[in-house]
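=== RUN LOG ===
request id: a7f3
mode: sequence -> structure
chains: 1
length: 321
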Amino acid sequence: MMDLFTPLVPPDRLHPNFKRLLSDTDWDVREVLAEWADGFIDRDHKFVREFQTTFNSSWWELYLYAVFKSLGVAIDFSCDAPDFVARDLPMVVEAVISSHAENSTPEWMKSIDDLTGGSDIEKRYTETLARLYNSLDAKRRLFDRRYSGLPHVQGKSFVIALHNFGTPDSFQLGDVAMQRLLYDIEKRETFLKNDTIALPLGIFNRPEFACVSAIMYSSVATYGKVRALGRSTEHFVFQATRIRNNLELIPIAATKGDYVESLRDGLRVFHNPNANAPLPFELFEPLDIREFRMIDGEMFTTCHPDGDLCMRQVMRLSPQD
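=== RESULT ===
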């Protein structure tokens, strides 16, 4: 098993999120991550170093691997790319994250103002759209340039798995921006990046994206996810929102002992109706994975009976002297 937590580089090169993991109070976080990593093979012998120094992309890969294990999807690590090649299913998955824009606040430096001061929700969605589009288009181009020629990829569904770390409040924004980017239900056609550059909406309707079978997406596979799954009995308060039938918001406030969240809660799968190699619907059917399907121009979504997780934040309560 990989040793994720023994530092390989000097302290000043460790990522702030990794340093947080080393705290004595975060033993349960390390425990969950070790479970996620069990069976994961470091093919290029640099995964642990990248986990410690750049963090978020490696964290996302560990989460995805844990999801695949939970679904019984075996991964063939003999293939060097894409990131996940299903051994017994016609599917390959490339992982990517959306990161903060240059000269903007990274998610690990978020402040109370970052989380409470954004009253212009449309502006926040637009900023998110730009980060998501850049990440997806880069991976689409990588498929055209390299992956499409690999024998173990040809004829299989190509899935891009994206986590949104693009803004300090990304975990609060749900999947509205992704719905707009992929399907453009509101028929806006484009949006303006930085108020100047027009970028497309409804990219699943564009021929260059026909190579992408589906998008796996989350904005809540974060530290809070591991807090929810960990065994710590410290005093944590969870504030979350679930959504039922893409309409009814269900607010939740609970202490750790009363809060329930699964590994896959908050995970979305957006199917491309125009894909060259469509992703079979039955591959991701558990109730805690929310699927989006466009059929004859109409959107259909699955729905967890308790509502699908769309945001969650965690606060630790400190005892008073």
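=== NOTES ===
The first helix runs from residue 16 to 21.
Residues 230 and 320 are 24 Å apart (CA to CA).
=== END ===
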